[in-house]
Amino acid sequence: MATLGQADAENKLAHEKLYLILDMDETLIHSRKMKAHETASGTQIIVHGERYDMVQRPGLQHFLRTVTRKYTTYLYTFGDEVYTTAVLEVIDPESEFFKGGVCCWRQGESRQHKSLSRVACDKRMTLIVDDMVDNWRDDLANLCLTRKFVGDASDDGLQLLSSQLHDVHMKFYSPSTGKSAACSLEDPQRQPPDVRVVLSEFRGKLLKDCQVALTGVVSDQTEESLASQPLCELIRRCGGQVTLNVDDSTHLVARKADGWSTSGKIRRAVQRAKTDKCFSAVWDQWLTEGLTSWKRQPEGSYAIPEAQLGRVSAAEPEVASECLQLSPNLSPTAPSLTLSTSVKPIGSNSMCVTGSVAEILGAVKNNATHTLPPAANAAQPTRKRLRDSLVEIESTAPRMTVREYIARQKALLPTSHPQMT
């Protein structure tokens, strides 16, 4: 006997419908807490006694009316019940759109991970729409990534999304994939298509032949982490590959974070792009726009401009604010660095280790306690993180610039602990 879930899926097949899971914040609406005496640009809602300005994404009502004809729609949000109810009273006052149900955050649950296990649906017939790829690490095959909505009145994200959902539905129920009325999930001889396969047919070759190196885009870059990072997995699902080695890449994808204009990695990539026609240095919008539109974007439109790169001095006697001291005759972009680092672990006085990059890496990697003051031995969280970060960059150390070295250490030190000074 078919389970209740199977019976519901069979009913969807009979009526040529699919399941659709919609995120709320930055996908359908954008909201922010209002200041005193401020006027709302959208709709004012009250949540836990606080005023919020809630802006609907352009075309939201038309979008919901359109997709609910072909999809049984759910709302899945990290917002709590009070906030979600306040939003629904504005965007769906008659409770006509989210017939599948509403999943909101409950006390004790994670606000970093969503799962289809909370939704009464069949994964083979389910699409997810969210602006955050990290939320769906277990269900990336079902994810239709959408552009983040931040309140822009000219945003056309729902128009694009509506077209994509229409195309997937048409492909799923196309006569070429079988007669939908005759399909059955219970009969192996009459199986319907899998929507995950259909989605792959639209985007599976998007990044074909692309070897992507990332800088500033994901927080942790090791072979192990890149194998499990949701964004990296989505890149692979779209036909691309992710590499740690910029020299092996066809694209360096960078985020415009603090210090980007003096990044040695970005500078070298921009220089290489000038002579290597098979390589591009682009902003991360190139990747995001491709993943959300399912269309390969022209690299030239997202190229990192050389003119915006900051100047790097040929000799910097001291970068005290960044805790790295250099010989007066040493160029920050020299291929081989001799460093004098001053690190202040938890509860200790500053320490100083001078030597080549390889020597410093080896000392920390091998837990050489004589290179650390006694008080630092108790500072295992900071010490371990520093050691791991140095081990991580060991293979690329000879090519690192000073600023890359500094940025890597700062990024990996716990924010609650004293920083390198």
| Strand adjacency order, main sheet | 6-5-1-7-8
CATH level-four homologous superfamily name of the largest domain? HAD superfamily/HAD-like
What is the overall silhouette? globular
For the record, give the distance between the C-alpha atoms at the N and C termini, rounded to a whole number.
Answer: 67 Å
Rg (C-alpha, Å)? 26 Å
Task: Please state the second-level CATH architecture of the largest domain.
Answer: 3-Layer(aba) Sandwich
State the helical fraction: 25-40%
In percent terms, what proportion of residues is strand?
Answer: 15-25%
Q: Kindly report the CATH topology of the largest domain.
A: Rossmann fold
Largest sheet: 5 strands, parallel
Instruction: State the helix count.
Output: 12
Helix-strand category: alpha/beta
Quickly count the domains: 3
Contiguous runs where pLDDT drops below 50 for at least 5 residues? 312-402, 416-421
| Topology pattern, helix = H, strand = E | HEEEEHEHEEEHHEHHEEHEHEEEEHHH
> What is the class of the largest domain in the CATH system?
Alpha Beta
Mean pLDDT: 78
Total beta strand runs = 16
Provide structural commentary:
By secondary structure, the protein is an alpha/beta fold. It has 3 domains: 4-203, Rossmann fold, CATH 3.40.50; 211-308, Rossmann fold (3-Layer(aba) Sandwich); 318-412, no CATH class. It has helices at 4-14, 60-67, 81-91, 157-172, 195-203, 223-228, 230-237, 264-275, 284-293, 357-365, 380-392, 402-412; strands spanning 18-22, 29-33, 43-47, 50-56, 71-76, 101-103, 126-130, 143-145, 211-215, 241-242, 251-254, 280-283, 318-319, 324-325, 338-343, 351-356. Helix 2 runs parallel beside helix 4 and helix 10 (357-365) crosses helix 11. Helices cover 29% and strands 17% of the residues. The chain has a 5-stranded parallel beta sheet.
